[in-house]
């Protein structure tokens, strides 16, 4: 059966509640999902409660923004349970840094004479895990920009006038902390890292040696041959080929839970492989 190991809810920059994510996953016929909201585990308890009454497995996860070779990398973390632990305790500091960054970014936008308040961004987010997509949505609703892409291109992307970087864990430190917390990791959407396709094995060898668990190969926005290539790279490094849709609800309306753009299938071997890494 198929799984989906990369999903966002209203606890970060998705627009469906954790319970609704579970419902959509059941409708899609999946046997298991991982909820991977950015930098927090806030939706896990709700998703798990929904999963228990729906007969689908819910894996606790998060998607961390880490630093790798001086640039941002998204690192998926699996089997990280809410509560205390080395990485869990660091998440609190990461969330503080995000909160401060968010407020400073809104100040910057206001300094650019844009009519936007932090309260509006907070209302758009409707809870925890506030981030740039919520700012983008407010800018669209106010008619400042026509769409998401222009919001990032003009104001919110790295290097644009509204952007402020937040503190990030180093990739290897995050891999170590995850392992010390009983969890394992996978590099999210590797095409965003500026590594040439024929260079992935060399580029990721150091992280594999450091204890990385997998590479996201079965990704909703990849062509089939890219997925196969990344799965081969993962195998050659002794890593698990993981995958998911990166569903964000209305923020990425072209993606569906389980099937991505329509043709995605993430084999349940991906989850079995990750489970084997946490013993
Ligand atoms: P944040 O976690 O607040 O730094 O926001 C990062 C999120 O913004 C990513 O996970 C994406 O969902 C979204 N994002 C980042 N860059 C872009 C972009 N250029 N276009 C659209 N969405 C983006
Ligand atoms: Fe996101
Ligand atoms: Fe991501
Ligand atoms: Zn994601």
Give a quick set of tags describing it.
single chain; 18% strand; 42% helix; globular; 279 residues; 9-stranded mixed beta sheet; alpha/beta; binds zinc ion; binds adenosine monophosphate; 10 helices; binds fe (iii) ion
Give an overview of the whole structure:
42% of the residues lie in helices and 18% in strands. The chain is of the alpha/beta class and 279 residues long. The longest helix has 26 residues, at 86-111. It is globular, with a radius of gyration of 18 Å. The mean pLDDT is 96. It binds adenosine monophosphate, fe (iii) ion (2 copies) and zinc ion (ZN).
Low-confidence stretches: none
Number of strands: 9
Sheet bearing the most strands, described?
9 strands, mixed
From the spread of the alpha carbons, the general shape counts as globular
Order of secondary-structure elements: EHEHEEHHHHEHEHEHEEH
**Binned strand content:** 15-25%
Total DSSP helices: 10
Q: Tell me the helix content.
A: 40-55%
- List bound small molecules: adenosine monophosphate, fe (iii) ion, zinc ion
Note the gap between the termini: 22 Å
Integer-rounded radius of gyration: 18 Å
Alpha-beta classification = alpha/beta
Instruction: State mean pLDDT (0 to 100 scale).
Output: 96
List strands and helices in order, with pairings:
Elements: E1 2-7, H1 18-27, E2 32-35, H2 44-54, E3 57-68, E4 71-78, H3 86-111, H4 118-125, H5 132-141, H6 148-156, E5 169-170, H7 171-180, E6 184-187, H8 200-209, E7 214-219, H9 224-236, E8 240-244, E9 266-267, H10 269-277
Parallel strand pairs: 1-2, 2-3, 3-5, 6-7, 7-8
Antiparallel strand pairs: 1-9, 3-4, 4-6
Helix pairs in contact: 1-2, 4-5, 5-6
Bound molecules: adenosine monophosphate (AMP), fe (iii) ion (2 copies) and zinc ion.
């Amino acid at each position: 059966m198929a799984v989906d190991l990369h999903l966002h809810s209203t606890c970060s920059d998705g627009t469906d509640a954790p319970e609704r994510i579970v419902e959509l996953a059941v409708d899609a016929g999946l046997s298991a999902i991982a909820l991977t909201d950015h930098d927090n585990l806030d939706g896990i308890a709700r998703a798990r409660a929904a999963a228990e009454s729906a007969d689908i497995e819910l894996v606790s996860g998060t998607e961390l923004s880490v630093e790798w070779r001086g640039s941002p990398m998204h690192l998926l973390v699996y089997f990280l349970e809410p509560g205390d632990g080395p990485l869990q305790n660091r998440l609190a500091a990461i969330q503080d840094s995000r909160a401060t960054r968010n407020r400073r970014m809104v100040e910057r936008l206001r300094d650019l004479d844009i009519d936007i308040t932090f309260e509006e961004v907070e209302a758009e987010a409707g809870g925890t895990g506030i981030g740039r997509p919520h700012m983008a949505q407010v800018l669209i609703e106010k008619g400042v920009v026509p769409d998401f892409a222009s919001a990032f291109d003009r104001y919110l992307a790295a290097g644009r006038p509204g952007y402020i970087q937040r503190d990030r864990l180093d990739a290897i430190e995050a891999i170590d902390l995850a392992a010390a917390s009983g969890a394992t990791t996978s590099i999210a959407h590797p095409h965003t890292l500026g590594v040439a396709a024929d260079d992935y094995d060399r580029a990721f060898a150091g992280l594999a040696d450091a204890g990385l668990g997998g590479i996201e190969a079965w990704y909703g926005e990849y062509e089939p041959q890219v997925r196969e290539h990344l799965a081969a790279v993962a195998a050659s490094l002794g890593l698990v080929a993981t995958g998911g849709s990166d569903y964000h609800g209305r923020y990425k309306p072209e993606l569906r839970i389980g099937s991505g753009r329509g043709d995605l299938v993430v084999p349940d071997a991906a989850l079995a492989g990750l489970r084997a890494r946490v013993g």
